[in-house]
Every structure is written in C-alpha cells, then in structure tokens.
Amino acid sequence: MKIKPLLQRYQALLDLPAHTQSVSLLEGGTPLLPLPRLAQELGGGFELYAKVEGLNPTGSFKDRGMTAAVGEALGRGAQAVICASTGNTAASAAAYAARAGLRCIVLIPQGKVAAGKLAGALAYGAQVIQVSGSFDQALELVVQTSQRQPIALVNSLNPHRLQGQKTAAFEMIEDLGRAPDWLCLPVGNAGNITAYWMGFRQVHQLHASGLPRLLGVQAAGAAPLVHGAPVELPETVATAIRIGKPARGEQALQAAAESGGRIVAASDAEILAAQRRLAAEGLWVEPASAAGLAGLTAEIIAGRLQPQGRVVLVCTGHGLKDPDVITQALPTTPVIPAELAALEALLAG
Q1: What letters, b where the CB count within 10 A reaches 16 and e where it falls short, cover 10-26?
Q2: The whole model's pTM is what?
Q3: Would you state the CATH architecture of domain 6-59+161-327?
Q4: pLDDT tens digits, 149-203
C-alpha cells in the first residue's frame, strides 16, 4: 500500500504557501487505540481511546508540524532552520532538516532535556547548543536570531507548524466518524491544543462534525495557564511540558474556553501514575504524554467531569523519548543458575 505524505493527503484543508515543498518521512496516520479496561477503571459509561502520536517517525507529534515548517522554509530558499526545544522539537527539526538537506541549529536549556531526545537531535546531525537558562530564554534567543539572520524559525510560533499539527484532528474525525466528546492532552508551549482546535473547527464548519470539549493539562510545577502568570523556574518530571511562558498561551486559553472545556494542572505523582496505567495497557509513553490521562483522572475523582460518549487521550511522545524516570527506578532483578529447577522454584515463589 502506497502511503501519501501528510501534506499531500490533506492539501485541500491546509493553508500553506504555494512554494511549500514536500519534505516527508511519511508522518501521521497514527492509530486511535481503544482502552476499554481503563475506561472501566475510571467508572465506565464511555469509550476511551488514545491517539498514539509516539508512532510518528521521530517518536512524537512534532513531525506533523515540522513537515510543513521545513517544507515551507525549503521552498522559499532557506539554507538553515533553528529552534529552541525541551527535546521533541529538536529531534523532529533535525530529522526534517536532514531530509531537506538543510542545516539545523537547536538551543536547549542546559541539563533539562531527556537523553533520548538529545540523542535524536545529534543523530540527525543538528548543531546542538546548551543555554544556561530556561526554555523560554532559549526561545527568545532563536526568535531574535531568526529576525537578524536568514535562518527559518521552526518553533510553534511558526504558523505553518499549526497547519501540519491540525491534521491529527482530521484523522480523529475520520476514525470516529465525528469529533470526540472530550479531547484530553498535555499543554506545554500550547501549540498543539491550538492546532487541534483549529482543525476541529475547520471540519465542523465544512461538515458539521461536532466539536469536542478540550481538557488541556499542564504539570503543576509548570502551569502558567492555570496560575495566570508566567513561571520563572518551571520544574517537572514531564520534561516535554516544562515551559513557564507558553508561546501560544492566549490561544490555548481561548480554545479551551470556546470548547466549553478548561486547562488544569496535574502533579508529577499523578502524571507518573497515569504513565504506569497506560503501560499496563501496553502503551508506553513519555511522562508528558500521560498528562492527559492524569488530568482526566483527577477531574473524574473530584467530580468535576463525568465523561460520556467518546473521550480521546492525545499521547504525544513514545516512552523511549524520555526513559530516565523508568531506568532510574529499575528494581534489582534476580539471578539464577541456568537450571529448570531454579526457574521453577523462583516462579513458585
């Protein structure tokens, strides 16, 4: 079966410049995985699904937007791209720049990026620079650089990123036949929740497909949209959403309000518990990707949300992107002789 590049599949629904080139790793087309057992654990009475975005080429949802941003940059003659990143953007930008034959420059907050993501950026040949500061400070630097030099900015401030990312909403409607009743997803720099709402609204206006309520979830230690003020020193185990001043914050708040939903915060303990629950269903995601389930669970327990119909969790990145929280807590494994009796004795245990 021949798979079309994402931008080609949804060309008629995307607002991209005519000069945009095809720079594809065959991203998108990720599965919508039913989670019936987990739905029952949460009280039942609704259908629960996970949109498994970790199955994109570089292991995260960022590939949807990056195929558009890098394709546009290549089409207008850019020779290099630049981004600030907590990890996933770095790996994705590096991969798509490599695919396009462009130089890639990545700024990351010093010591704050998961090894799996940093390794990806380096493997794809990016020039990685650590900044003694936060992601938000790194983002300011790359914005200033892109304004002073002929280097294309590919962070979510780039509007073409959102055009690519909204395709996940299109896929969801295709799989379900309509929009879900609730969409639960992590919120970091807030580009993804903004893009989803853009996509759902677009299809609803064309085909009356319905609109979901949005439950955006930030980590409690990095929750500026919940607290109503920037967080100068954001801290959370969910490294992908460790952002104190979201670039698309106002748009995210507007999207949540328009949908009849909200943005909430989940503690690191709740996020890690949600990660374990998803793994028990056979779905290993990075900590930030479990934020949607963490927020949904907390809202149900508190009686603030009674899910009905169809609920979708957006799982934004694969567990291999940020394995440190698992490997640091590895239990001691038993060692036995290569003898059947020893194995049986251990299993009988």
Answers
A1: beeebebeeebeebbbe
A2: 0.95
A3: 3-Layer(aba) Sandwich (3.40)
A4: 999 999 999 999 999 999 999 999 999 999 999 999 999 999 999 999 999 999 9
